[in-house]
Amino acid sequence: MPRIVVVSPPFSSHAGPLATLAGALGAQGAEVFFACGEEFAHLARGDSVTFIPLTVTRNANTGVAEATRQPSTEEARLGEFLEATRAGAVPTLLTQARHRLADMLADPEGVLRKLRVLDERLKPDWYVTDQLSFAVTLALHCMGAPYATFCPGHPTYLPASPEAYFGVPYDWPQALRPDHADANRLLAAARENDVAFTNAFHAFVRRHAPAAPSPGRAFALASPHAVVHGYPDVPWLPKIADGPARLFAGHMVPPNSRPLDAAWSLRLERLRRRTERIVLVAFGTFLSARDDVLRTVIRGVLDGLPDVGVIAAAGQRSEALADLAGDRAVVAATVPQQSLLNHMDAMVHHGGGNSFTECLRADVPALVLPFSSDQFAVARDAERLGAGTVADPNTLKRADVRTALEGLRGPMSDLARSSSSQLTSRGPVWAAAQLLRVMAQSAPVR
């Protein structure tokens, strides 16, 4: 069995799935090291995975972005990003495009230096790295190290054609389609980023590994052996004819998810005594800061749906929303989302890949309110699957919440149920087995 180093950026929504994959690889006999920021050491559970401290980016998110200590420049960019989400989809994506070099390629020399030291010490056979850790992928390319890519977001984050650009949704949900002028502005910014990143990659390889092959188009650089997607293989995804094995695992929920603890079981029991249905509301580790939208959603449930209870994850804004808590509402900083979903009747989320796949796996329909990043593409998939409905978070009214959740009372579509079945038959154990098979067949020599 191979010795594998799984490298994760210090972001909760990325480290969790990568640690789950690391655990599944270890459980199947591989010798696995989980390399991430110190705050995530607890994710390397059991005897099969060894934690290695490694920092590969200047910013971080340990569970609630606003509560994570980081340099002032990173805090300022986070604040600018959150403010941009109030202006709408295209302004947010343009802000993210402007931040991209600083966010995702801040210190490639430092990352290469650290990985070379780690490689000399551990001498792994393989690496697994997050596709959005561009500096890590670039370093591994320069080192000639065998690696697999884990794609944590929408599969189109790996461009499938020359006409596809990172940061431009492959398709938009109906409620958030931009006009022609805004769409062109976004496309121009994405093209500019594509050129800037590609030039930076080529210059870096020329300086540090002139004998290495060309990295090609920067955002398309990935393992030539295997790409693991924590996402279902929905039929309309753009296909890549040639290249690495594409392993669509469906989700990255641990095979033995933790049951609800006593405190959460009691909260759930109290809500069930007072309501017929319960809705989970969570916007991920960054967007819980949008307490204005959280308030609209919670009030929409409490005022318009007297038979429905609500559990809301509000991050640093839980105190600001504490006035909404009561017999039919629980407001907490964080919630055990994966465990709670097995007991929910619907969810309101931001279109994050983890929330989408976890809902689909649990057969829970969703109201999706996308704000940024790949969330628009994920929301469009939920819409096309019939796994939920999509609305613009910035124009959302309480009555819209009531109407949307009333529309989610029936069963999900046959297509959504088919995808849900695919998810339950796959997951991290399936992905680990497939990945180990690819590694055994590839057996590259360093």
TrEMBL record:
It comes from the Bacteria. Residues 310-409 form the Erythromycin biosynthesis protein CIII-like C-terminal domain. Keywords: Glycosyltransferase, Transferase. InterPro entries: EryCIII-like_C, UDP-glycosyltransferase, UDP_glucos_trans. This is Glycosyltransferase. It comes from Streptomyces rubiginosohelvolus.
